[in-house]
Amino acid sequence: MRINGKPGNLISATDRGFQYGDGLFETLAVVGGEPCLWAAHMERLETGCRRLGISMPDRDGLLREARQEIGGEQHGVLKILVSRGAGGRGYRPPRRGTPTRIVSLFPWPDYPQQWSDPGIRLRVCRTRLGTTPALAGLKHLNRLEQVLARAEWDDPSIAEGLMLDTADRVIEGTMANLFALREGRLYTPALQRCGVAGVLRALVMEVAAAQGLAVLEQDLEMADLLHSDALFLTNSLIGVWPVRQMEDRHFNPRLQPRTLWREIRGRAFAGMNTRN
Amino acid sequence: MRINGKPGNLISATDRGFQYGDGLFETLAVVGGEPCLWAAHMERLETGCRRLGISMPDRDGLLREARQEIGGEQHGVLKILVSRGAGGRGYRPPRRGTPTRIVSLFPWPDYPQQWSDPGIRLRVCRTRLGTTPALAGLKHLNRLEQVLARAEWDDPSIAEGLMLDTADRVIEGTMANLFALREGRLYTPALQRCGVAGVLRALVMEVAAAQGLAVLEQDLEMADLLHSDALFLTNSLIGVWPVRQMEDRHFNPRLQPRTLWREIRGRAFAGMNTRN
Prior knowledge:
nine-stranded mixed sheet; 16 strands; homodimer; six-stranded antiparallel sheet
């Protein structure tokens, strides 16, 4: 772990990330010793910093620190966290704070191979997402809703939980975005009220469009999912997980858009290259 | 500052309080060298710990640490923070985590005397509160909405900002609860969808009832406030702040419930005694 560029694992307890969740993070796959989709993650981090009024750390410096942290590891998870930094008591952000940046490497998660094919079991969480437009789309550090939702189940055969907002709109998984395929069109929940706008989600939309598959961002309800031909989840570590079963509803694996998956997985786990 | 009972100011960057805002806090007035409303703050902390599934620290131990931290100071602000403690990557809370507890003393805030009488100027914030019943009422560490709301104004003559939820219900200030007096009845926003259930808020409800003043917890809108005779804000540090002016609406200071204030302030700043 590197804190503001230096090896270490301690931060000030006055850090506003700790006191108020006042910050953002990115989670990247490391493949072949290189972070994947670097530019897209940096774009999102910069957008988040701009929306929260936090100074974006220098990208080249972050990449240098990421490579130092990765060292000789070929495969892993790189987490980059940026908080508003240390501050006094009170919600008001300091005018000229010095952000804290933390770059750390974790082992690759041991997800069962069958979660990628034929797919996962998905449950529906009781914990709802609140609707806060000012925070919608951001991967910020206020994650208690996800913590409570993820604490709802212990069954290791269930890979993910689906979260709805307080108006019964389907939004996302606890850690992944959702897509639904129906009659040749791809749907994904609109995220202007809540939810995290995933880097993989944007990639799916780009790749699907390039493959001639229309993608619609709109409000979706449970009935829309139940009447879909296929569902799948995406994030930077899982790539694509088809949904084999959601509660009692089983999905036909042959209706999954396999051509789309292949390209998404190829692009998601390509490591650094000239394109990203 | 004391971290798990020992003087220090550094925590692990893997603390879930930092990674996810996975924790709670209390802010207490220190008067005459003693924390005020101790029992009520401990009750709320324990309720929060139970709802989040965090082990409540031992109360006597916390009081011992609070007194060590206060030392010889007569007047100040005591902040007690309890997080779920260190953990790995991922939202899922560990089954048997060891919570982190932080006890720290801050200087008494230098609020102008006239904010207590005749009262404050209150603005209305653009940032809205999301509605998350699972978190409603708790003083948890997910405070980005308050941070963004408090960043909306710089004018030092405005003491506080009023926050509405996404359905236009009035909820609270960025750091204080709200009461409205109308035709001899006291109203305060219901907090089952969002908001922090303040220790002072509960005290006001108790004292008002004892004084024969009916208190109604219900949904309120801006129109209800504009048609009120008096508004006031409460928290453990400010005690009571009457609202002199909210945006363009001026309130007649003679309509404020001064008998109620006096008793609330007396009880709020009494220090430790047999009653609390």
